[in-house]
């Protein structure tokens, strides 16, 4: 078998080349993406060490920088293409994984009920709880099948930027729990034989019994809708920069777009999860009514939701140019800005969160007068020294007319900074 695989290796690589999206292929999307990333990192580190430059451009600093930037840009575009292919393939396989997790939860519930029934006996409430879990699991499985190209059951909680939405995930968890609690009461009501028992179960749905849970459900659902509106308006108003991710990750629930831990998201998930766990225990103890979430705990959840919403209003901001100076190397004389010189643009917000990849950095443009200058990628060991979030260095092309000209930065997502005037001399 090993000999046959060795003989057929060339044909397989030629057929797939790292671009296929089948889940079982060893040369599929994931392997292709990893191989492209490894090649890019090797090339970047070689250029950072001064290796691999052709003799035709090695004598000129500006020419070699431009050549290196173009080579890295092409390699980064290849990595981005492979990353998108891997993301699509991962989403297509996710529906089956989510379905397995859902039914795994049902099996876990069955085991817990079976263990706790030892000595106490099996009750109608346990049967109703298990049937309710089966109904919800069946509905989620059907939804996973119909949305299998978009992540299965997770499709409703994946945002427009292809990341898991914290607000939608919290709201979705509360919706599923309340639906489960109501189905438990429905199952018990269907099995009830006496009028007194049926009346007690119906009274368990009264607002006085579940006011805390209903309030929390209303608030978290409203937060999910409001956050989507807030983010959309801020993006269209160029007050927030959003970069689309290759695929959603579980860490998206606790981090910002750059992958850094977000206090607003973490506290919202933690407090919401703790309150949900308390409500689940209350439902297990009193399966004849909606969980009576104490108002103290409900207010804590509301404060957490308000903090999360305030964090969404506070994040982001429009990129801004603070100053533009002539870039000076050691030994250079002080002089005004001339065509052919490098200028250093200082400011903030040039690199949006999540746009640290070379494919996004290479899309940055600086307008100098009427000339559009692509920001060159300058590799260093482990990353890039240009561009950065606070400093950009670009050359002033010979096509720029001497005189007073405007400088403006266009970020990777298309957001424009303020215009800054500089004087270019002959």
Can you give a write-up of this model?
It is a single chain. The chain has helices at residues 2-16, 29-48, 55-58, 61-116, 124-146, 166-191, 195-203, 207-236, 263-285, 295-314, 358-361, and strands at 320-326, 337-338, 342-348, 365-368, 371-374, 378-380, 383-386, 391-395, 403-410, 420-425. With 426 residues, it is of the alpha+beta class. 31% of the residues are buried.
In sequence order, what are the helices and strands, one letter per element? Answer: HHHHHHHHHHEEEHEEEEEEE
C-alpha Rg (nearest Å): 29 Å
Shape: elongated
Helix content: 40-55%
How many strand segments?
10
Low-confidence stretches: 1-19
The largest sheet, given as strand count, sense and whether it forms a barrel, is:
5 strands, mixed
Strand composition percent: 5-15%
Distance, first to last CA? 71 Å
Query: Going across the major beta sheet, what is the strand order?
Result: 2-10-9-4-5
Number of helices: 11
Mean pLDDT: 85
- Alpha-beta content class: alpha+beta
Summarize the structure.
This protein has 426 residues and is an alpha+beta fold. The chain is built from eleven helices and ten strands.
